[in-house]
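Reopening this ticket.

The earlier resolution said the output was attached, but the attachment link was broken on my side. Pasting everything inline this time so it's all in one place.
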Amino acid sequence: MKQYSAEFLGTFWLVLGGCGSAVLAAAFPGVGIGLHGVSLAFGLTVLTMAYAIGPISGCHLNPAVSIGLWAGGRFPASKLLPYIGAQVIGAVAAGGVLYVIASGAAGFDVSKGFASNGYGAHSPGGYSMLAALVTEVVMTMFFLIVILGATGKRAPAGFAPLPIGLALTLIHLISIPVTNTSVNPARSTGVALYVGDWAVEQLWLFWVAPIAGALLGAVIYRFIASDEK
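Inline output:
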């Protein structure tokens, strides 16, 4: 139960910190943090939580990561569903807190996106569904390769949070214009449910693509590190 509670809290922090920076601070008049700040915020949520709860739950914070770690031989199948459940609940709870905060400002309109992920007309840069699909698969694939490598036996002990957090920052710098960056089904769900409408209709892609990418990353890493054991 402590592991699941840790995943709840960690994913809550990821959504509140990452999506919160996008909703509350990205375009703040005069001093908004913009794309670079939002990218860094997502990376910092993972970095800080990896040190805080990594020894407790492994700090997955992401159903795709949990599934990828299972496929990579690092996580038992028996814990997959409870981990994913805790992550999604944590994300939705954080979305609720963010909604309460954001709605305290005059003119707040959740239909404008609320940091939701999308493609086509709902992509920040107007990118197609195919572009979004490829982006999410490839970005999550590399994220899993970094995670598996940084936490492997060959990696220096105690430093894994740094490359993992920086990798997520880089992923956001690349892909915010395409999909608003998911690579995490829980993060996508946590805000999409409050937007409803198109955000929920397009949510399927932000479950399918990250999970496919995570599985692909696990297979590739197991191949290139097959002598690690």
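Reporter confirms the inline version is readable. The chain has nine helices and no strands. The domain at 1-225 is CATH 1.20.1080.10 (Glycerol uptake facilitator protein).
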